DNA sequence: TTTGCCGTTTACGTCCACGTCAACTATTTT
DNA sequence: AAAATAGTTGACGTGGACGTAAACGGCAAA
């Protein structure tokens, strides 16, 4: 039967593309995770037959998603942000709203930066204190050794 | 019956203390949340009868917990960190392990700082671009007005 | 005394972010 | 032809971080 489906021949009409497995390996996540992100409306790869095909844009979004996760954003939050970004290329109303949302995010990030710096300071303190204790112990051991000899 | 339970009279034997409700209000969380943290081994307030009594130390820990949460640490992680901190006042073995853990955390925070700065930069870019679009629209509106008049 | 108000434990429910099969298809390798 | 490899869609399970009653105790003001 002369099936008209020609899955392979098209040699990437424009730019680099990726399979789901490639992306999974590159970012050290499972394919399940990537499909889940699509389910939640965060990714929308094109299809070649039934297979998903990811372009540079999709890969960039995935990067953003993972970074967002490391910063504690929820998938829903990021979905909103992406949707806004995509639809904010016109009416002033939309643009103004988008600006306000960006400002919120900025506040969030500023708070987080403070948290991060405070935590970093305390961590360094603990570190230094811990080292002091160790050095003191070493000195005590040395002292004991000198006495014993 | 002369019950020997004297819940109130002891006027705070040392330093400030807090009830669970006070802390909940102060940090804008529910009492359920605070009890949950205790369940997970993150807090261990003393008791007056059956009531929980929180001291400055407990309050400080709660602050740490909430900050940790904002930075994406899990409760289990923080529990471990606290346990380590509490028990790392002796053997060199423990101290060395503690140092290594602190180093891990530091790596985490550094990664997060990079993520944060990158996100902040992109956010500012979006912000600026968005403002440009708005200003351009204003100019267009003004132009149209001048023509119409 | 009764009515709030704050506190307690126990237990089940929920939302999020996936993990884990299962059953199937399509291609490539042996 | 058989096996290995990569992909697909369900559907159910899970762990973390609480929410949400339910049922009770203790105390202070009305």
Automatic annotation (TrEMBL), chains A, B:
<feature type="domain" description="HTH merR-type">
    <location>
        <begin position="17"/>
        <end position="84"/>
    </location>
</feature>
<keyword id="KW-0175">Coiled coil</keyword>
<dbReference type="InterPro" id="IPR009061">
    <property type="entry name" value="DNA-bd_dom_put_sf"/>
</dbReference>
<dbReference type="InterPro" id="IPR047057">
    <property type="entry name" value="MerR_fam"/>
</dbReference>
<dbReference type="GO" id="GO:0003677">
    <property type="term" value="F:DNA binding"/>
</dbReference>
<feature type="coiled-coil region">
    <location>
        <begin position="99"/>
        <end position="140"/>
    </location>
</feature>
<keyword id="KW-0238">DNA-binding</keyword>
<protein>
    <submittedName>
        <fullName>MerR family DNA-binding transcriptional regulator</fullName>
    </submittedName>
</protein>
<dbReference type="InterPro" id="IPR000551">
    <property type="entry name" value="MerR-type_HTH_dom"/>
</dbReference>
<dbReference type="Pfam" id="PF13411">
    <property type="entry name" value="MerR_1"/>
</dbReference>
